[in-house]
Design goal:
This protein is about 40% helix and about 30% strand. Strand 4, helix 4 and strand 5 form a beta-alpha-beta unit. A seven-stranded mixed beta sheet has the order 1-2-3-4-5-7-6, with helices on both faces. Helix 2 packs across helix 3 and helix 4 packs across helix 6. It is an alpha+beta fold. The chain has a single domain, classed as Aminopeptidase (3-Layer(aba) Sandwich).
Length: about 200
């Protein structure tokens, strides 16, 4: 079991890497996760078709697609894209849309989502964003986002599926709860990976 007392040590263990279309293994993993999680929205086009879709998305300069790893094992992914909408036309903020936010099934309920959200905020700040927007297709996740400072904007539909649009100010500091969740997640992930290697 790993026990870290410094958040600095923890931050180095979960890595966020920007994907390119040539990162074949990770693009294939992202395609598999996407097809399994959200394929129903577009009628499950199939994993091979999804790989092409993911390569096109990753190659498009308006998208920044990231793979999240722990000890070089992919544990999640997300994308940040340019965003414009009449809903925010009066906002002076630079807005990015959070898409494809996914935590691998075997790494859920360990605080990884909270850790990833902290990393997402960091990446969004690095590229000059002031605000994130995101849609949730799973109402069970709404409380998670609210806990991390997201505000409900409107209920909507995405390809006929009910969704809630949230906005999140990213120029606020990471909360003590987010920091504690990150440290907690670190120890749980280390135990899980250690058990997998035995």
């Amino acid at each position: 079991m790993f026990l870290y007392t410094s958040i600095g040590k923890f931050q180095g263990l979960i890595r966020v890497s920007r994907l390119s279309a040539s990162d074949t293994a990770w693009v294939d993993q992202a395609a598999e996760w996407t097809e399994n999680k959200w394929g129903y929205i577009r009628g499950y086009p199939g994993i091979e078709k999804r790989k092409g879709i993911m390569r096109d998305l990753i190659s498009d300069p308006i998208n920044q697609f990231f793979m999240v790893t722990y000890a070089n094992q992919p544990i999640g992914m997300f994308a940040l894209s340019d965003y414009s909408s009449d809903l925010f036309q009066d906002a002076a903020a630079t807005i990015k849309e959070l898409k494809y936010f996914y935590v691998a099934i075997s790494f859920r309920s360990m605080g990884i989502g909270s850790s990833m959200l902290a990393k997402i905020k960091e990446k969004a700040k690095e590229i000059g964003a002031d605000m994130l927007v995101l849609d949730t297709l799973n109402p069970n996740l709404n409380q998670f986002y609210k806990k991390h400072g997201a505000k409900e904007v409107v209920d909507s539909q995405f390809f006929g599926q009910p969704t809630t649009l949230f906005r999140m100010d990213i120029n606020t500091d990471i909360s003590d709860d987010e920091m504690a969740n990150s440290v907690f997640a670190q120890s749980k992930v280390a135990r899980k990976l250690s058990a997998c290697r035995k």
